[in-house]
Design goal:
- A hairpin with a 2-residue loop joins strand 5 and strand 6 (about 60-65).
- With about 170 residues, the chain is of the alpha+beta class.
- It starts with a strand and ends with a helix.
- Strands 3-4-5-6 form a four-stranded antiparallel beta sheet, covered by helices on one side.
- Helix content is about 35%, strand content about 25%.
- The chain has three helices and nine strands; from the N terminus they run βββββββααββα.
- It folds into three domains: about 1-30; about 30-80 and about 130-165, PH-domain like (Roll); about 80-125.
- Helix 1 packs antiparallel against helix 2 (about 105-125).
Length: about 170
C-alpha cells in the first residue's frame, strides 16, 4: 500500500499507522459533529462548522440559544484591491520605462510584465466576504463569514426558520 503524506508535516506514513509519529495527526477523518437533541429539536442546517436546530445555533465551540436571537442579517465586506491596483500601475510604469529606454531593457520589460500580471491576478482573486450577523441583548456581531454568498443565504434562511419555531 502507498504511504499517505501528512498535511501538517509533509511526512509520509503507512495507512496502517494510527497517527503520525512526527506531528501527531490522526489518520482517521474527524468524526461528524453530533448534536445532542432535546425533545422535539430538529436540525435545519448542518455543515462542518455550523449547526442550526430549532433550539440552538452552534458555531464551532460556541452555542447560541435561538430564543435569545432578536434578529439575523447578512452583510458583506468588499475586497480591498488598492494593493492590486498599485501593483498593476507600478508594473505599467516599469514596462513603459523599459520599452521607451534607448537601449531597450528586456529584463526590466519582463519585470514590468510580471508585476502587471501579479496585480491582475490579485485583482481577479479578490472576493467579497459575506457575514451572517446575529443580534440579541447579550451578543451582536459576525457569527460566520464566507466568500460563498449562497451558503450564507442558506444559513440565514435556516436561522430565520428556527426563530419562527420558538
Amino acid at each position: 500500500m502507498a504511504n499517505n503524506p501528512r498535511p501538517n508535516c509533509g511526512d509520509s506514513i503507512s495507512p496502517q499507522t494510527a497517527s503520525c509519529p512526527h506531528c501527531g495527526t490522526s489518520q482517521q477523518p474527524p468524526a461528524p459533529c453530533v448534536v445532542p437533541t432535546e425533545a422535539g429539536e430538529k436540525t435545519l442546517y448542518a455543515d462542518s462548522t455550523i449547526v442550526v436546530t430549532t433550539a440552538r445555533i452552534i458555531v464551532g465551540p460556541t452555542t447560541y440559544a435561538v430564543r435569545n436571537v432578536k434578529s439575523v442579517g447578512m452583510t458583506s465586506t468588499r475586497p480591498r484591491v488598492g494593493c492590486a491596483s498599485l501593483l498593476w500601475l507600478a508594473g505599467l510604469v516599469i514596462l513603459f520605462s523599459a520599452l521607451t529606454a534607448v537601449p531597450a531593457s528586456f529584463g526590466f520589460a519582463l519585470l514590468g510584465a510580471l508585476v502587471v500580471a501579479a496585480g491582475i491576478l490579485r485583482w481577479i482573486n479578490a472576493k467579497t466576504t459575506y457575514h451572517v450577523e446575529l443580534s440579541s441583548g447579550v451578543f451582536d456581531g459576525h457569527t460566520l463569514s464566507s466568500t460563498d454568498k449562497a451558503d450564507m443565504q442558506r444559513l440565514m434562511r435556516s436561522i430565520n426558520e428556527a426563530m419562527k419555531c420558538r
